Amino acid sequence: MGAFYRSYSIPGDVHEVAEQKITTWLSRKGFYEIEDHSVIDHERDGERAFYLFWSDRWTIILYSHFEEDERLLFELNLLQLPILHLWVLDSDVWGYELFLQRKPLIVFNSQQKYFGPNELSDVPNDIPTLLAKCGLEDLAVDDIAAILNKRGLFKERTCEEFAKAIDARPAAAQYEYLSESDAASPGYSFVHRRFRKRGFDPVGNFELHLRQAKSGGAEAFPLPQNLPLSFRVIALLMRVVAIPLGWLMRFTIARKVKSGDLPDGFGMGLPGQHPKEYNFEENRLENPKRRCRITLADGVVQNDGFGILPFNIGDHQVVSRAISANEAMEILSGSHYQEIEEDSNFEVGSLPAKYVLATSTIPQGKQRTRYSYQYFIQAPFAIFHFSLVTDEALSSAEVDSFRKTIEFFEIIEQEITGE
Fold it and tell me: How far apart are CA 75 and CA 24, in angstroms?
């Protein structure tokens, strides 16, 4: 999966009026601002959020919901200022549009034919006008043109170079890729604002022990049967092409990893990925931001991977997250599970907890079984989810170590201040 960037940038420092426009719009939509939003990551169904960056040169907005970009643009256009929309699509193509009074004045697309003919196809990419409208007359047109003409495997790298050249580096990103601990950008101030729909509660009346894990019943990854000969021939040709292409990409990525030349957004946006926000001392992992800690059982080791409390069971990495009730219910719905081998309730201290062992058949090459070991712990403010997925069943000792570690889980109570 490639990178997806999208941002809106307004020349100059207008962050106060831009922030007011967005917050007023969200208030009209029935959202109120929440102050303590550190435990659960942004809950897409019931929340809206944005990062706002500003300097003397730019005000930059990264908004949480791309499907509402058109309305966001409408609200920002009320400022009657130029607005630069910068984007990357799946690392394949990148571009920008400069809007003035809701009309596209300048458009650039690194692959003109990617989207086919559309209403923006005939809008010119006038670099001198772009620089003039954005107050960037000190930049050389030829330098910008050279960046736009660059070729590369990862288009986000070129987009980042362009953003850096116009001194708008925070614009080469998207909301989902950032966390408050790593959002800072040299020369820019920023705020993270998060809003919740009235009546929405990320945990609400959810009762973990009343929920049962469900299986999909059929194969989790079914293969079509009785395919036409023409389709099978095409599939074979695609495999012939895909295998050497895959090895080429592995070689390219390995070389870039070794040289440290991977794009900033590469590999981001996956579940369970967080900057390091935990402390590890002796055999205890503690994450003050997510208000939780866990003591590792004998034989269980901490790892430096992603997650709120990252540890390994043997050679297997456990992915840990703080999620909402909606997401917990989605996981328990089991759309990718063929069989539920075990579903048992218990308590971790006074907290409701659930253990689920699910399996699914993977009919690719030699048929094999995939095992999914999952624990859920319900706290008043979040559901803590621990997941381990493997193509080999855990040994009884590993299963026991996993359970013992989960039983050592604790929430960190907030300090009550005041007289």
Answer: 10
Nearest to 376 by CA among 315, 312, 317, 330: 330
pLDDT digits (tens, 9 = 90+) for 119-169: 677 788 999 999 999 999 999 999 999 999 998 889 999 999 999 999 999
Backbone dihedral angles phi then psi of residue 53, each to the nearest 5 degrees: -110, 145
Of residues 201 and 50, more confidently modeled: 50
| Closest alpha carbon to 276 in 266, 264, 287, 262 | 287
Rounded to whole angstroms, the Cα distance separating 247 from 179 reads 33
| Sign of torsion over alpha carbons 159, 242, 319, 335 | positive
Chain segment 250-305, per-residue pLDDT in tens: 445 444 444 444 444 433 333 334 457 789 988 999 998 889 999 999 989 998 87
Paired tokens of 371: 């095992």
Long-range contacts of 283-288 (CB under 8 A, 24+ apart): 285/309, 285/310, 285/311, 286/412, 288/412
Residue ranges covered by each domain of the chain: 5-197, 208-217+269-411
- DSSP three-state, residue 96: strand
Q: What is the 3-state secondary structure (H, E, C) of 376-404?
A: EEEECCEEEEEEEEECCCCCHHHHHHHHH
Residue 320 near residue 309 (C-beta atoms within 8 A)? yes
Pairing of strands 5-11, 368-379: unpaired
Q: Amino acid identity, residue 256? A: K
With helix as H, strand as E and coil as C, how does 295-323 read? ECCCCEEECCCCCCCCEEECCEEEEEEEE
What does the mean pLDDT of the chain come to? 84
Q: What's the topology of domain 208-217+269-411?
A: Protein Transport Mog1p; Chain A (3.40.1000)
Of 69, 78, 68, 64, the residue nearest 18 (C-alpha): 78
Cα distance between residue 316 and residue 333, in whole Å: 24
Question: CB of 123 within 8 A of CB of 107?
Answer: yes
